[in-house]
Amino acid sequence: MRWAPAIVALWAMPALSQDVSENDMAAAMAFAVNNSTLILYHEMGHLFVGELGLPVLGKNEDAADSLAAVLLLDENADWSDAVLRDSAEGWYLSPFNGDSVPGDWAFMDEHSLDKQRAFFFVCMMVGNNQEYYGELATEYGMDADRQEKCKYIYQQAHDSWTQLLDPHALSDENLASGEIEVVYDDPGEFAEYAEALMADSFLEYAAGVVTENYAIPRNLTFRAMQCGVSNAYYNPGDAQITFCYEYTKHLADLYLSAFATGSGGGGEYTGDESTDETESNQ
Question: What are the domain boundaries of the chain?
Fold first, then answer.
């Protein structure tokens, strides 16, 4: 997974905007695919809870973030490292951080504030490996005392999820009753984003994480599609995780607004702010 050269090759084609260089577009797409992967793993957290009947004490959304971080850190690979780093930056760059002030609706939402999510993933990273991630945590303003506390936060999350998931691990005595179908629907105007996700084996690898390790009780679908909104969600009624191509475009736009050298990068984000991660939970 994580064939970065394939992503760069896709974006060696004519850029979507005449004002954006090919290098900027390639970097934006890599950033968008990495952040999309984090969102997919977040939805997998909801899927594990819903399909395996796992208990959750506290906020469902925080629990899904926690499991996503644990799964990605357990990969211990260059691609998962890039996913975590880019995702922390993505949440930090979110439109309702920085100079933007979230309204009351943001505090009512079931998700933690975006900047809180950024710091949470950094905390999980440094808690997992302080030697490797200590410099990153310092860049985010975490002092030595906070980094030390993150060791406990990470270990508690890892141990808790391991204890909950181990009874559902695949074995000769514990066989899966279902499989996962991977579907990339017609992307329409989002073809470039769909091609980047497919080149990265976006859905296929995530589905393998589930089916190669855990005894899922029924058939499921991982689907990428046009939704009309930047969104991603797990719906137990449909037995499906849906990821919207619009979300990857939103993430690429977020990167370009912050960093693109030929399109006023570094300014305030003005793209689609209507992202969501809704879940139809049981």
Answer: 4-259
Q: Check pLDDT > 60 for residue 4.
A: no
Selection from 171, 76, 91 nearest residue 125 by Cα: 76
In this prediction, residue 277 has a pLDDT band, given cuts at 50, 70 and 90, of low
**What's the mean pLDDT when you consider all of the chain?**
85
Residue 72: per-residue pLDDT? 98
Beta bridge partners of 221: 181, 240
Are the beta carbons of 89 and 118 closer than 8 angstroms? yes
Nearest one of 22, 18, 19, 24 to 255, comparing CA atoms: 24
Q: What is the pLDDT of residue 261?
A: 64
